[in-house]
Amino acid sequence: MNANVAVENTPEISLWNDPTVSVTARVDALIDAMTLQEKTAQLYGVWVGASDQGGEVAPHQHDMEEAVDLEALLPTGLGQLTRPFGTVPVDPALGALSLARTQIRIAATNRFGIPAIAHDECLAGFAAWGATAYPVPLSWGATFDPDTVRRMAAAIGRDMRAVGIHQGLAPVLDVVRDARWGRVEETIGEDPYLVGTIGTAYVQGLESAGIVATLKHFVGYSASRAGRNLAPSSVGPRERADVLLPPFEMAIREGGARSVMNAYTDTDGMPSAADEDLLTGLLRDTWGFDGTVVADYFAIAFLKTLHGIAADWAGAAGTALHAGIDVELPNVKTYGAPLAAAVADGRIPETLVDRALRRVLTQKAMLGLLDPDWNPVPAALGGADLDDPAALRGRIDLDGPENRALARTVAEEAVVLLSNDGALPLAGPRRIALLGPNAAEPTAVLGCYSFPQHIGVRHPGTPLGIELPTLRDTLAAEFPDAKITFARGTGIDDGDLSGIRVAAQVAREADVAVVVLGDRAGLFGRGTSGEGCDAEALALPGAQQHLLATLLDLETPVVTVLLAGRPYALGRAVEESAAIVQSFFPGEEGTHAVAGVLSGRVNPSGRLPVSVPRGPGSQPTTYLGARLAHASEVSNIDPTPAFAFGHGLSYTRFDWADLTVDVQEIATDGEFTLTFSVRNSGRRSGTEVVQLYLHDPVASVVQPVQRLVGYTRVALKPGEARRVRVTVPADVASFTGRDGRRVVEPGELEMRLAASSADPRLTARVRLTGAERHVDHTRRLHATFGQEPVVRA
């Protein structure tokens, strides 16, 4: 197979192919040489699936779009290839060969030799057959560990880049506002600072591997009414500015993300895909973003079909292009013939096409796709005989030992011990009753954007491609001397009560009952968690609560384990379970992590990224509520959670003491430093997660009672202590004031050093002095932490 594609314009290299010339000059020259149809061709993608025989990709036929004639499209060029690996099961090596052959054809068919950008999903790992299934983003949030998330993202990015992918559609930076929303599993949590820091780390890891990270969904998707997918969003400008936007701002400014994807939703009647103030005014003119804005799948067409603000496809194209969407995904619909016709007859200015095209070609140039030595053969196929596809099968391993070890680290750090009366760790039980619908289900650890749950379910009979040990398997390995008896009890959501009596009998005969409950990930109603799988209330699906209540009526101690995509109200179990272990779809190594926590091999350090409600109907609520959102004497509804944001127990004990503050008063442009000690006073090594919350007693506009402004993990051996130092700039106290500008106001503040949002350990009262100060997107975003060992005299 010819690995290099020559550009056949002139005997000499064309200006746009000359890497010694500035990118701006190269792109300008290329735009000047293009016809209108060649320009618009760079602004859309085609949804394809790689060939499992190594041949060229085939267009994916989607029920929301007409069939695509690739043969007719390619002579004018192609902007993107949509999900070549994430559409059908394909051996990774043959998929890489298929993509390479397709890129050769694309470049050879258009007169400028421009290949396509290939993008794929990577929400919880590269969404390809046989690739590592890492924990879902809600588990990333539970780690409170940006460094580990950054390493995970770099590994995901390396795997993607090695097989020819350029762009990943992650991370999701939506802040949870209502846990009934099905896509909670895809989010990082309910706090914007946690979402921003963990999400930025993921962006940094992905980008370090050469993958274009795509921030989504910009903005307001998670704030839909009643937690319904793709429903209108009812946030005001202040909530949007202070809760929903900061993670995107941070990931652009500090993460270097090169792409943004719009949200489907409308906010106060304005769809994000049509919002020029958002996609151009804020994103580009204010924040300085210079990458590409890509449409969420079908979002431009939705301006006509769902939002009703465009009369035809050309109107939808013009509206989106004017707002600032550069690339239509997943297929050509509006940015092809309708856009070209509207430009030709003067309805849409060609300058808008050129503006988007310049961003697309700039990105292609920076990816090396315009260079004369561009090679379509990816690194993973280097040195292979590309003319012998059969020999390539099995050559590429996307789930090697290093990946699995990293997946286990993330999973172990993400397990949250919610409660424990001393039952855990299990002390060598002789008889374990293992019960519940997720106890022996291999895919119970996977989210809806994992390959097996997203694509594999549509291909019955195809192997999973990765090892997925059940909790039944890993508990047997963890407790080899115990007799483990399994009974399913009930299904996830079938409401079947017929097996509960058997489960109760098994529990009666055991020393401990481990009941494994939660979700089944799926899409559009095919699961209990995932895109389009919204919940009417936060009760456990099906008859699971009935099973749990039946077991709690017995004398056998019950350990409740949750493998879920969202938090659920657990009823009596909050007080009556011997212990509760929460895991949010922890990935392929997840059951090893949970089994390790049950046995004590792993000392849990996960903290809740979302509150666990006490009742199933007290939504929507997060810990970020203002005073009126909390329990009061004027309402009979108490929204206080059963387990608060940031909560998580350990098998050791940590003591906090000796808080000092360097200065009690600082100017509104200053900073102050808190210093305190954390000691492991228990008998085993463990990690405490120090969380810093800000409480502003009096402000010019209503504020949350408290909000997270910093955190750090402190790993300590038994008896070891560390002196923790945190420097807090006044900027972190800023908020959107009455005039819509971000302000730091003088006055009293409380800085709460806490083990959770409901467990403050040390409180510093400080004062900001001087005039109020306006800040912008260049403000300081972080409190900074340092640690020093405490040396005993």
| Oligomer designation | single chain
What is the general shape?
Answer: globular
The CATH architecture name of the largest domain reads Alpha-Beta Barrel
What count of structural domains?
3
Average pLDDT figure: 95
Question: Gap between N and C termini, in Å?
Answer: 71 Å
Major sheet strand order? 2-1-3-4-5-6-7-10
Helix content class: 25-40%
Number of strand segments:
28
Tell me the name of the CATH class of the largest domain. Answer: Alpha Beta
Explain how this protein is built.
- Helix content is 27%, strand content 19%.
- It has 22 helices and 28 strands.
- The strands form six sheets. Strands 2-1-3-4-5-6-7-10 form an eight-stranded mixed sheet. The protein has a six-stranded mixed sheet with strand order 11-16-15-14-12-13, sandwiched between helices. It has a five-stranded mixed sheet with strand order 18-26-25-20-21.
- Residues 688-757 form the Fibronectin type III-like domain.
- This is Beta-xylosidase.
- Pfam families: Fn3-like, Glyco_hydro_3, Glyco_hydro_3_C.
- GO terms for molecular function: hydrolase activity, hydrolyzing O-glycosyl compounds.
